[in-house]
């Protein structure tokens, strides 16, 4: 019972309050006659914008107080253009709008509406709407805004909004001063590019009175074309070749591709860049989200609004786009791994390196087949001669002597041996009889000459050039190598872990976060690590370590806190790119500078300046790279290991054959009952007759 009475009382109080507010609102509108005057001012404003600008559609946000302004007259007297009308309740919290309002705002952003007319009686609602729209990018901050002048919009906590929404017109209503003078509106805007210092003071643009503008100025002139030499804070992180910091004594000079782009933008847009590095840049680098929700490093400066621009090889990724605005990519970089080169020495394989496996199999098969053909032709020729001799009746007795040259191929072992000798360009001791064998010998010689010349040329190149390096050039080879891999940042590990490729997922499982590239290079030189970064930075890292190695005077030295040893392996950049990443310059979230900066950056790229600056930045690094030294045709003892190995194989086989013959002589021949050491010729003659 008591609960029911309480509900009735609350409902009655609420109705009384609403009726009072409605009555007060009606009195205010009636007293100021805002509806009609505001309607005419908006008609002139919108028509003026549509005559000078390309308007896609117009989004109108209003409440019940000013809903009468947007009657049929406004839509009839404005140039035809699509409208999105959103009516919000007076009690709605626009920092967390209801579903209908949110979906309407999203749809208008999706449709590309580039004019917002926000006419709300409650300035706090407008302020909370602007906060929400900026935080979640529901509102297009680079669109044109028309809203009522309200002191609550200029609170110090909202000053960051007016660094992002600069194309805005505030309508401030003024009452009639004299009898025949109608009410008028003061049109003002934010003082961009001048910074807001403590107190927000709007800048008058024009005055609307009696259905016309007093000055006739361009209400939405581009404020970013000339920044009046305003100082912009630019945070940077040293990352070759985008930003290169050259330290000399106590001073440092900053250069690189992005510095050149920044100087060009500063000249064209007329601003003065103020460069600085974030605190503990070496430790935090680009920065990441901390446990308390804040961001560190370069990204922290952008998220906190301390910097207007950010330089430092920012990847054009959804993660960075969520926190900042990125310019159009000015280049694309290959991101891959810096891996160790294997120390395996394959000089002992030089004899077989000129030909691949299948080529050696083909040579062996040709040798066996040709030797068998020679043997077959020789046997056939000797049988033919024996047949002819049996048909002829001569006075001379028939002898068992073979035709001249037939002994070369009369036995299968001799046939293979002499065929192999021709392959080694060893001439035959006798020219064989029989035209078929002679013709085959001639053509086989041509084959041997071509094969030997190819082998010699390849062998000469192998001996004259450095030994081939055993490197890791694909992700599969990196996975199979079982070495650890890593890079900077949790987002990089997340990239591999969430990869759709099974090999990428395996990389992500053993991916380690390492903050110090110098330490990573030391681990790579030991052959136990692979480091992930852009190929240009990896080239700088490898050259830096190699120059430290070549400049040392003793066997061991310390360079940049890492030990460099002669036993360390060379560093190799994997030839396959893991991913080609677009690189951009960063702007603070919803920055008004981005559209015009994109235009200039596109022109810089099109004329080839970025490529020229990139070559300039990498020129010194490439010249210091000692891995591309001039190759000299020198043969050292190490390259001839193969010759000694071949000789050792020959000695070994010869000794084995000698031992075999010795065993056969003592345990087979001498044990034969017919063996007579004093008549060995008779023993072998009888033995041959048996066979």
UniProtKB/TrEMBL annotation:
Membrane-topology annotation of the record? Multi-pass membrane protein
Q: Where in the cell is it found?
A: Cell membrane
Do you know which InterPro entries this protein is assigned to? Answer: Glu/Gly-bd, Insect_Ionotropic_Sensory_Rcpt, Iontro_rcpt_C
GO BP field? detection of stimulus involved in sensory perception
Q: Which domain of life is it from?
A: Eukaryota
The molecular function GO annotations come to: ligand-gated monoatomic ion channel activity
Spell out the SMART domains in the cross-references: Lig_chan-Glu_bd
Signal sequence interval, chain numbering: 1-23
Q: What is its main location?
A: membrane
Q: Where are the transmembrane segments?
A: 357-383, 404-423, 443-464, 640-667
Q: Which UniProt keywords apply?
A: Cell membrane, Glycoprotein, Ion channel, Ion transport, Ligand-gated ion channel, Membrane, Receptor, Signal, Transmembrane, Transmembrane helix, Transport
Quick check: keyword Nucleotidyltransferase in the entry?
no
- Which stretches make up the Ionotropic glutamate receptor L-glutamate and glycine-binding domain? 241-304
- One GO CC term on file: plasma membrane
What does the similarity note say? Belongs to the glutamate-gated ion channel (TC 1.A.10.1) family.
Name assigned to this protein: Jg20167 protein
Give the gene name. jg20167
């Amino acid at each position: 019972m008591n609960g029911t009475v309480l509900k009735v009382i609350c409902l009655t109080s609420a109705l009384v309050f609403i009726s009072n507010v409605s009555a007060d609102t009606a009195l205010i509108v009636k007293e100021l006659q805002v509806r009609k005057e505001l309607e005419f001012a908006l008609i002139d404003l919108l028509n003026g914008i549509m005559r000078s600008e390309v308007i896609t559609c117009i989004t109108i946000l209003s409440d019940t107080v000013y809903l009468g302004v947007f009657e049929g007259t406004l839509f009839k007297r404005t140039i035809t253009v699509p409208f999105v009308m959103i009516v919000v309740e007076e009690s709605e919290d626009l920092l967390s709008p209801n579903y209908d309002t949110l979906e309407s705002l999203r749809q208008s952003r999706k449709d590309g509406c580039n004019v917002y007319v926000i006419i709300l009686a409650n300035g706090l609602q407008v302020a909370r709407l602007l906060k929400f729209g900026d935080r979640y990018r529901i509102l297009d901050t680079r669109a044109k805004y028309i809203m009522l002048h309200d002191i609550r919009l200029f609170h110090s906590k909202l000053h960051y909004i007016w660094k992002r929404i600069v194309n805005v017109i505030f309508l401030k209503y003024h009452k009639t001063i004299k009898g025949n003078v109608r009410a008028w509106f003061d049109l003002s805007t934010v003082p961009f590019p001048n910074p807001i210092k403590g107190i927000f003071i709007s800048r008058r643009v024009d005055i609307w009175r009696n259905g016309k503008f007093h000055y006739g100025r361009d209400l939405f002139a581009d404020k970013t074309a000339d920044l009046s030499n305003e100082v912009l804070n630019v945070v940077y992180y040293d990352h070759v070749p985008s930003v290169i910091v050259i330290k000399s004594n106590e001073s440092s000079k900053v250069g690189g591709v992005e510095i050149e782009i920044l100087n060009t933008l500063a000249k064209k847009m007329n601003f003065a860049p103020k460069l600085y590095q974030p605190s503990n840049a070496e430790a935090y680098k680009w920065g990441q989200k901390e446990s308390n929700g804040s961001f560190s490093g370069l990204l922290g400066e952008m998220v906190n609004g301390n910097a207007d621009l950010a330089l430092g090889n920012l990847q054009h990724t959804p993660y960075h786009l969520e926190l900042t605005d990125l310019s159009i990519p000015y280049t694309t970089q290959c991101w891959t791994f810096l891996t160790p080169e294997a120390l395996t020495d394959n000089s002992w394989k030089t004899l077989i390196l000129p030909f691949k496996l299948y080529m050696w199999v083909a040579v062996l098969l040709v040798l066996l087949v040709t030797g068998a053909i020679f043997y077959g032709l020789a046997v056939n020729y000797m049988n033919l001669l024996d047949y002819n001799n049996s048909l002829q009746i001569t006075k001379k007795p028939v002898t068992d002597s073979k035709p001249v040259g037939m002994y070369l191929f009369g036995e299968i072992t001799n046939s293979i041996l002499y065929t192999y000798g021709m392959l080694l360009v060893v001439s035959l001791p006798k020219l064989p009889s029989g035209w078929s064998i002679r013709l085959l010998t001639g053509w086989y010689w041509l084959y041997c000459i071509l094969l030997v010349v190819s082998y010699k040329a390849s062998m000469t190149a192998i001996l004259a050039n450095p030994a081939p390096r055993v490197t890791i050039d694909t992700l599969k080879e990196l996975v199979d190598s079982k070495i650890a891999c890593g890079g900077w940042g949790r987002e990089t590990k997340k990239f591999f872990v969430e990869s759709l490729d099974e090999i990428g997922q395996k990389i992500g499982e053993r991916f380690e976060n390492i903050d110090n590239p110098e330490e990573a290079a030391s681990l790579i030189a030991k052959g136990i690590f692979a480091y992930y970064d852009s190929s240009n930075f990896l080239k700088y890292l490898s050259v830096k370590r190699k120059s430290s190695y070549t400049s040392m005077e003793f066997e061991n030295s310390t360079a940049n806190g890492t030990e460099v040893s002669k036993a360390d392996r060379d560093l190799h950049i994997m030839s396959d790119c893991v991913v080609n990443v677009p690189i951009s310059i960063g702007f603070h979230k919803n920055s008004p500078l981005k559209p015009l900066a994109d235009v200039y950056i596109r022109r810089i790229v099109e004329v080839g300046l970025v490529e020229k600056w990139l070559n300039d930045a990498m020129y010194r690094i490439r010249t210091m790279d000692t891995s591309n030294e001039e190759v000299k045709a020198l043969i050292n003892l190490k390259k001839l290991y193969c010759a000694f190995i071949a000789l050792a194989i020959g000695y070994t086989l010869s000794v084995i054959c000698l031992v075999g013959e010795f065993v056969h002589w003592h345990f087979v021949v001498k044990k034969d009952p017919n063996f007579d050491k004093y008549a060995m010729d008779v023993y072998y003659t009888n033995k041959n007759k048996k066979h």
